[in-house]
Every structure is written in structure tokens, then in C-alpha cells.
Amino acid sequence: MNKVFGRWIGHSLSARLLWLTVIVTLLVEVMILLPSLGHERSAWLMNRVTEAHLAALTVSTAPHGVVDLSTRNELLRLSGTEAIRLVQGGRSILVLPPRGTVRAEGSINLAHETLFGSVLRALDVQFGLAPRDVLVTAPSPLQPNVIVQIVVHNPVLARHLWHYADHTAALSLAIALLTGLVVYVALNRVLVLPMRRLTESITRFREDPEHAAPLAIRPADEFRDDEIAVAARELASMQTELRAALWRNARLAALGTAVAKISHDLRNILSTALLVADRLSGSADPAIRSGATTLVDAVERATDLVTHTLSFAREGPPPLVRAACPLAELVADVAAQTRLLHERLTIETNIPAEIMPSLDRTQMQRALLNLMRNAAEAGAGRLVISSGIDAGQVIIDIVDDGPGLPERAQANLFRPFTGSARSGGTGLGLAIARDLVRAHGGELTLVATSSRGTHFRISIPLDPG
Description:
It catalyses: ATP + protein L-histidine = ADP + protein N-phospho-L-histidine. The protein contains eleven helices and twelve strands.
């Protein structure tokens, strides 16, 4: 009960809309009432002028143009005046003199009065600021060439205006309440109820984002383009994407737990491989020694990758061990590793030897290797790596001649499990590469992609300090 009552006294959006509509309607009615008062005053006075002229015509039909005292008083009472004078052809005739001593303390000429002036005088009359008796002059509606002058008792006019104001105010209040109710029902249906659906869905999703169902879009809302319908569709889409992301994160967390459990055995396997590689490096055959050196380097990188991957899964981006690194040498090493895996790929590098940014060589090597391998696996036959310095940033451009990224991959770029450009891919390569670049305080962006190739750009600070 308190909840419902609270909505009506202003604690809900619908109640506030209701009272706002009522208040605005009342303000409009007040703005209309003031001119209406002025018009009603003028109409009342003109009615007195007309009735006074009729009373004067009645007197003119009497013998010798004179009536007895009781008839005079009755004619003055019926006309609502204290005295009547006619002015015609320059002659002024006191048709009906006052019943007693009447002293007009003010005068009004209705022919020259404006609506604004009439409103002000009506308010003066209502609040007792006008003289008690006033002389009113106006052309007769019956005979425009006849000027009628009457003395009006303002308290009588004040009672009439207050009665008119009370009646109009009551009608205005009824109209305001009815208008407010109609607007309330309409806004409650088209605005408040949809907003309530949105807020309830948001609340449910906040309480249990993994299991709460996304907002159900009604068929009528699918084709509407107003703000609430758009917000509902966007909220449903966001909830669907967030829930999918939470499920992916849960799966990744489970995967990280599984990887952590097997990391010990994996390190033992790599240790055995490293031991065998060390023994092979002592072989008398130069070819075997060369291959063993490459194998040792690969096993060491694999061991380091397992360690850093576990740290990344548990704590976020890996800590960086920065040092001045010759970028040309780093890119050449990554290009050599890529060629071993993709023999048909032609890699061209254009890296000035003087560029030596402060970075973690191992992590940047992983980022570049992911980008180059992605290009090769996407079908590129030629890869061009170039670099330069711009506004304190080291710019590394990776341009291939592959078929370009499909629209689905572009829409989900850098998102694991959704941003892969090839069938069966996971999209982890780009996601990991961007995380590693961001760990250096830089950014990995897609510059362009088309059927003629794809252009990625890495920008990192030359000196992070």
C-alpha cells in the first residue's frame, strides 16, 4: 500500500509526470483566466450600458418623459446602475437621476479601453482597490450615435467577477485533473512501463548476470526507431554479449586451472627436451650443432611462454622487463622464425638501425610473431615490415597482400574466440598481441583491410619514462 501511495505522491516517474501535467495545465488556465476576467468585466459593463439605454427608452415613452419615483428606482435596479445620462447631438440629458447622493470617484471610457487595461481594472475591482462608484461612458450598442453614461457600483461588479473567477477556476481544475489523468495514462503506457521493463531487466541482470535472461524484445518494438525502443534493443544486445563474455571468461578460467595443473608435467617434458638439445649441441657434425642451437632456443622460449602464460592468466598482463632493444634485430629474428614455419612467405623489412625503443624483447617478439603468423595463415604471400618515429612514438607497420579480413572478423577484432579471420581459428593471436602492446603503453590498430591486403600498426612510446 505504501509503495502505491508513494508513486502517487511523487516518488515515481509516472506520478511526477502526472503532477507536472496538472501544474502546467493550471498555469496555462491561469494565463487564460486573466484575459478572461478583463473580457468578462468589459462584457458586464456593456450589458449595463445596453440595459441603461433600454431603461432610458422606457422613460421616453412615459407621459411628458417623466416617471414616478418607484418606477425610476425599479428601472435603475433592473439596469444595475446608480444613474443614467444620454448624450446625443451634443445635448446631455439626465434621464434617470440617482436615488440618493452618488459621487463617482473615477471615470472609464469603454471605447478607448484596451484588454490589458481592462484586466488591470478588473483585478483592482476584485481586490477592493478601485473607487466605490465610477462613471462609465460608452457608445450604445443599440444606437451607436448615442453616448450612454452610467454610474456603476463597483462592489456589485466585484461580486460578479469573483463568482466568475470561482466558476472558471473550478472548471480549470477539473480540466487540469482530467488532462493530467489522460496524459498520465498515455505516458505511463508509452514511456513509464517500457522504462520500468528496462530497469527491472537491468536489476535482474545485475543480480545474476550469468543466468538472467536478456530483455525480451516484443515484436512491436523491433521496427520502432524511438529512443526507448532503440535503448531496449541495445540493452538486450549488450546483455547477450556480456553473458557470452562471462561464459567465455568462465571457460578461460577453467582452462587456466587445467593448464596450471599440467604445467608441472609440461615443464618436465621441456626440461627433458632441453637436456637432449644440449647434448646434441656437442655433436661433431656442424649441421647437428646448428639444429641443436635452434632447438635449445625454441625450447627455452617455450618454457618461458608457459611461465608467462600462467602469470598472464592468473594476474593479467605479464610484468615487463624493459631494455633498449635494436628494433631491426628484433624484427629480423621474428621474420626468421616465421619463415621456418611458412616457407612460401616472403618477408621484407625496412627498419632503421638507429631505432632502439625501451621494451620487453620477449613480449614484443610474441606480439610480432602472432601478427606475422596470422598474415601467413590468412593466405598472404608477401609481408612488409617497416618502422619510423613520429611524435615520440615508435610506429611499426605490418602490411600483407592477403585476401583481407572478412566483415565478421572486423566486427569482432581483438576479441578471443570471435575475431578469427579463418575457419577453426580462435582469434587469440590478435587479442594477445594487442594486450602485449598495451602493456608497453602502446596500441595495436587495424589501419586498412581489403581484397588487396591488410595493414596493422603498432605504436609504442620510444621512451616510456
